[in-house]
Specification:
alpha/beta, Rossmann fold, 6-stranded mixed beta sheet, 14 strands, globular, ATP binding, ATP hydrolysis activity, P-loop_NTPase
């Protein structure tokens, strides 16, 4: 019988973690593949303790943009600044070292491994000589439990295989994995975290995203679920044809206006978009 993941808000959450200084600034990023302009001169920022939603139709440039943010793709122009310092060289390793973690839609989990093994997959803790290292299983199990409990996730069986977990539980394990890094992440990028989930599990994952925000993380959520992201995010970035057409508070939009921005671009605003 698989263990059960239960989410509950921890008492230690730090409220009011948001500040006015961006933890991530994207300045004029552009990327082309041959003659195709995937992203053109896109700028935005995200604050600590803030959820930024990113929406747009298929082919709008969302994934390419986030791949540049995560360091997986080098831009042709523009730059990223993390806590005011330019990201250079533009690589995944450097982005992670500076505190950017991306959770892709496929999650990157291994079904035949346990929760602990997945959380530490590729970055296992070892002891002993380099030629014959020994896994620090107890330490990894304790660290996994600590992170899960900090997120308000109660896992009754730490050794349960991931294949026995539901979609929402798997998403939570992927989030925990992103937090068990050498450097505490500052920015969490999530690609369609609730796309394959039902209503109840989506609510659980979104509650967890809010708790991450309340702990001071900057969270970027790519989503096609417009009502959901409008309710979840503090600010919204709308993409169309590789360009930014809106970057501003979600409170200024409703579902209909957001759809119009996705379909028609900045013309749907009737005025210039917010800076």
């Amino acid at each position: 019988m698989a263990g059960r993941l239960v989410t509950a808000a921890p008492a230690s959450l730090a409220k009011g973690a948001r500040t006015d200084s961006p933890v991530l600034e994207v300045v004029g990023l552009s990327k082309s593949y041959g003659r195709v302009r995937a992203v053109t001169d896109v700028s935005f920022d995200v604050l600590p303790g803030e959820i930024l939603g990113i929406v747009g139709d298929n082919g709008a440039g969302k994934s390419t943009l986030m791949n540049m943010v995560s360091g997986a793709v080098a831009p042709d122009g523009g730059e990223l600044r993390i806590a005011g310092e330019r990201l250079a060289p533009h690589t995944i390793g450097n982005a992670r070292a500076r505190g950017i973690e991306m959770i892709y839609q496929d999650l990157g989990l291994s079904d035949n491994l346990s929760v602990v093994e997945n959380v530490f997959l590729g970055r296992e803790w070892t002891a002993g000589p380099a030629r014959l290292p020994v896994l620090r299983k107890k330490a990894m199990r304790a660290r996994t439990r600590e992170v899960l409990e900090r997120l308000g996730i109660d896992l009754h069986d730490m050794n349960v295989l991931v294949e026995g977990l539901s979609g929402g539980q798997r998403q939570m394990v992927a989030i925990a994995r992103a937090l068990v890094t050498e450097n505490e992440p500052r920015v969490m990028v999530m690609d369609e975290p609730t796309a394959a989930l039902g209503t109840t599990e989506s609510r659980g994952v979104n509650d967890l995203i809010v708790r991450l925000r309340d702990r001071g993380y900057a969270v970027i959520v790519i989503s096609h679920r417009i009502p959901e992201v409008l309710a979840l995010a503090d600010r919204l970035l709308v993409m169309k044809g590789g360009r930014r057409v809106y970057h501003g508070p979600t409170g200024a939009l409703d579902v209909e206006r957001c759809v119009q921005l996705i379909v028609r671009g900045a013309d749907a605003l009737g005025t210039e978009e917010p800076a």
